[in-house]
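Field notebook, page 268. I keep forgetting to write these up properly, so this time I am using the form the group agreed on. The chain and the ligand, nicotinamide-adenine-dinucleotide, are recorded exactly as supplied. Prediction of the bound pose follows.
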Amino acid sequence: MSDLAVGILGGAGRMGRALVRAVTEAKGCHVIGAVDAPGNPEFGKDLGVLAGIDPLGTVLTDDVRALFQKADVIIDFTIPRVTAANARIAAETGTAYVVGTTGLEPEQQAVIAEAGTRAVVVQAANFSLGVNLTIALTRRLAEVLDDSFDIEIVEMHHRHKVDAPSGTALALGRAAAEGRGVSLEHVADRGRDGITGARKRGHIGFGVLRGGNVAGDHTVIFAADDERIELSHKAGDRIIFARGAVHAALWTAGKPAGYYTMQDVLKL
Ligand code: NAD
């Protein structure tokens, strides 16, 4: 199989730079280019230099269509509005598309699902192996334990994060709800403040912390009378998400069009 040409959207961002490093260190793929928002001060700079590694001889641009044309697979870690527009281009060009942007509105999410009818699309709120295992374990525990176990999900992220709860916390919540055979929308408690009344049986609660440079901590708590199970994952560096996204990008080669998640990629 030939070396996969990977294009990165959001190339000047925190994840974009980690992705340039992860693609460069992986076997079987190389960075074909990266794009960021029009007017970005980093335009024209070498992608390797931006990522803190040796120069790659390719510079940051704003020509997203050209990147879709020349890449075998695109990895998108940008912002929701831009991601929805990019998913439309993936559907038009049939380019494999790996998407990690979180905080999508339902109509933006629908565009991504729709792209999966015409291109290989892999989406995950969190691309790390450890988190995906934690999601699978959460689903399993929720299947086995009845609602005498209250489920609470606590997350902490760096001070720059703009959406809450994190996409990963919501994915953990969805897994817990699936395990219980309910819809998360019907049982989620997303913001408690003031006189909230007693906790409702069967609800799934979310707690959100922000501060420092925390890459991403998640804990799922199953609390019953007199016993408690806690599943915790702590990310030490965002490179783990980038490596997972590159793993997903390599996995897309030769796959039929479809909407996939990291649970499919890892066969969980
Ligand atoms: P960031 O703000 O550092 O990077 C986002 C980049 O997108 C910026 O450089 C911004 O200029 C760029 N951008 C904005 N408009 C653009 C456009 N029109 N075209 C191209 N680029 C554009 O944020 P980040 O920390 O890198 O996170 C990015 C997203 O990825 C967030 O939604 C975050 O929650 C998500 N994320 C997902 C995972 C995962 O595993 N799925 C892990 C970490 C972060």
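OBSERVATIONS:
- The chain has a mean pLDDT of 97.
- The chain has two domains: 4-123+238-265, 129-235.
FOLLOW-UP: compare against the apo run.
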